[in-house]
Amino acid sequence: MSELNATDANFIHFESSQTPMHIASVQVIQLPHGMDESSFLTVLRKHIAERAAEVPYMMRKLNRTGMRWQPVDAIDINRHVRMAPQGFESSGRHFDQAVAAAHSTALATDGPLWDILLIPGPGDGRAALYNRVHHACVDGLGGQVAITRLSDTSIEPREPQLPCVRRRNDTVLGDWLNLGTRLVAEQIDALQSWPRQIEAILRGAQLAAHPLAGEAQLFAPAPRTMLNRTVGADRSYASGILPLTVMRALARAHDCSLNDVFLAVCGGALRRYLERNGGLPRATLQAGVPVGLRKGGDVKADNQLSMMRIPMRTDIDNGVQRLLAIAQASRYAKELLTHTLPLQSNPSAFMTAPLQMLLAQQMRLSSSVGAVQPPMVNLIVSNVPGPRSRRFFAGAEMLSHYPVSIPA
Predict the structure, then answer these.
(1) What is the reported pTM?
(2) pLDDT exceeds 80 at position 258
(3) 16, 53, 185, 363: which has the highest count of C-beta atoms within 10 A?
């Protein structure tokens, strides 16, 4: 049995019917030769049932107190792996509506917090897998680890591995005593680390006060837009593909990162959309950009995240100038994050300030407060690298991979 860290717990307790806190990914697959969706579903269920023990969140649920993950002896594979009620659109090109419908409903909390839906294809041998998991279980990078463990590098599946699961009896009193012990230990650690935290505060203030930080619009307020309104439970989803070679060439040509190019593309799309609909503000939109703190080789199923606030420079019409401005702001944001990480090292702080900003934004959008309170950020832009080699699910080759985030 393992405890939820502060970030995991907040994804559980901030959830509502209007703001379900799950993330997902979609894999378009080529069905094995001679199989239709119904026959593949049977094979897929057997495959996932054999691999579930390799993915920690698949074989655990919340205990009675909601403070710990409790191992389960078995899973109802027919409940967790099932056929989606909606398939590809009539054009046979997209699965967006099926994903939007699935992403609008919250996961049941009486068992492991995940499911996989098989989205029927257009009849050409293709289909799609919608892999959903509660954000309390794992972050984006951890989710990619799960995809790797559930798939294979060849059409022939490998033998499943059976990890040893340590069990521990839990009681309500024991959980509260353990929580109190943790809080005391963390406060002692906080007192011992105060010199580093003061140094981080001073360095962060110095960076924030630098004239170039103001020029980069890093701390400019987020404007009101037609997008930042109270939301309901329904979600929409749209997918697309950009040529990675072109994106990398742009990054090299302008001495910036691939993420900077991605942000500039999103900024340009937002500018055109808002301008076309008569809602483009003079001030730039501000994006919350999640940053993974997971070190190489760390495969724990939990959340290790922070957040950067980066202007999308929707106030700049020229694409190259927008990219250069975003790159400048991104460099400052990364430096600021690096120097303020000691302030985020104490998990008893309920949640790091940037992630608290994200969840507060979600609460704001799901209530009437969103109609009057200025937004902290206008949107979330997340970029998680997908698989970098050929992958197969129960003999079905993965053709493409798409992320689906919380605010989709």
Answers:
(1) 0.80
(2) yes
(3) 53
